[in-house]
Amino acid sequence: MTNQKEVLILGGGLAGLTAAIHLSKLGIQVTVIEKNNYPKHKVCGEYISNEVLPYFEWLDIGISKLEPTSIKKLQFSTQNGTTITANLPLGGFGISRYALDFHLYHLAISLGCIFVHETVENVVFEKDEFEVTTSDGTLFKSKIVLGAFGKRSTIDVKLNRNFIQKKSHWLAIKSHYIGDFPNDLVGLHNFEGGYCGVSKVENNVINICYIANYEAYKSHKNSEDFQKDVLSKNPNLKKIFENATLIFDKPLSIGQISFDKKEAVENHILMIGDTAGLIHPLCGNGMAMAIHSAKIASEVVFSYYESKCSRTSLEEQYIKKWKFNFEKRLKAARFLANILQKPRISSILMRTLVKLPFVLPIIIKKTHGKTIII
Ligand SMILES: Cc1cc2nc3c(=O)[nH]c(=O)nc-3n(C[C@H](O)[C@H](O)[C@H](O)COP(=O)(O)OP(=O)(O)OC[C@H]3O[C@@H](n4cnc5c(N)ncnc54)[C@H](O)[C@@H]3O)c2cc1C
């Protein structure tokens, strides 16, 4: 790769695909290295905040073609089933990652983006250029690399990133079901050791996705037992599971989910999406953040090529914008997740919310962004 305006993106999930579309639209030659093929199901709550909609329009994503569900309300419950419902200040939509990522992939290809289906093994930065090696031994060179390889990857190990040195106690499980559930609602139900999100995606399918502490999970034989013995103690979840039929062969699971702080730029790579920091899924804002960070990175890379500014200035601009947009949200989410895992404080919070329901939308706002401005 010797062209002037080119970008190499490591990972083709939501952040990588969004940046690929944005940069391709601006005339930059993009190569995405993605280890999996599309379409593919992913462990995700699949609720996206409406804050992304104007940006999706600008990118010509045509999200309505995928017929997502429109979600306007949040139902939140404690482990014993005490429940409150609130309107979501901005609202959102439900779409499966299977459909969304596949759609974005096709759009990126139609804009001239190149996809390489290989696993990135190593990234070296030397003499103002990156050398990226994939598992089949191919070497890619590029002036700009975006890191979009998600929550946890072998690339994090190679880069010796801080968070990868620590064990994480969170695992997550997701499945699709058919059954009875309102179209316009996202349920967020607490159980001992975790939270479960329930909402509809396209085709009237219900997505049930939960995150659990490994300590709470490990004494159970499998996810079915865990659902029966632990999740179903929350009467809301019991009712949902009783009225839903699994349509996956078996649930998908992932482990070692870390919410630790990460750097937005590491080894000169601009990190986008979960690679720069994962917000707790109970906030339902990770995808909007992945999409938004891809926008910010695409803009600074474009101006780097246009104005021929220095690499130091490119990295400083990205870090500044990333912090401005996401740092407070991540802090608020960490604080909230900690509170909700402490039964006594959490029950005081719930009693307060039942008496003062207008407080819930205020909390939601703290963990969400404003509509993304073009
Ligand atoms: C349990 C759970 C529920 C969630 N629910 C919601 C929700 O309801 N709403 C919401 O907004 N957010 C939610 N999130 C967060 C959301 O899923 C993420 O923030 C979002 O997927 C981030 O996108 P990404 O592109 O950064 O990462 P990903 O979508 O994970 O993409 C990373 C890509 O990199 C590829 N990759 C990794 N390593 C390599 C390698 N070495 N070589 C090549 N390719 C590689 C992977 O195959 C993958 O395709 C949830 C997260 C969890 C864990």
Secondary structure: elements and pairs:
Blueprint lengths: L5 E5 L3 H12 L3 E5 L13 E3 L3 H6 L10 E9 L5 E12 L2 H14 L3 E3 L3 E7 L2 E6 L4 E4 L2 E3 L6 H5 L11 E10 L5 E7 L2 E7 L5 E8 H4 L5 H7 L5 H8 L1 E3 L5 E6 L7 E2 L2 E3 L14 H22 L3 H30 L2 H13 L3 H8 L8
Bound molecules: flavin-adenine dinucleotide.
Summarize the structure in words.
The protein is α/β, with parallel strands linked by helices. The protein has 11 helices and 18 strands. Strands 3, 4, 5, 11, 12, 13, 14, 15 and 16 form a 9-stranded mixed sheet that branches. It has a 6-stranded mixed sheet with strand order 6-2-1-10-18-17. A 3-stranded antiparallel sheet has the order 7-8-9. A hairpin with a 4-residue loop joins strand 8 and strand 9. Helix 8 packs antiparallel against helix 9. The longest helix has 30 residues. The protein is globular. The protein starts with 5 loop residues before the first strand and ends in an 8-residue tail after the last helix. The relative contact order is 0.17. The structure holds flavin-adenine dinucleotide (FAD). Flavin-adenine dinucleotide binds next to helix 1, strand 3, helix 4, strand 14 and helix 8.
Quaternary organisation: single chain
Q: Give the overall silhouette.
A: globular
Proportion of residues in helical segments: 25-40%
Structural class: alpha/beta
* Total number of helices: 11
Radius of gyration: 21 Å
* Percentage of residues in strands: 25-35%
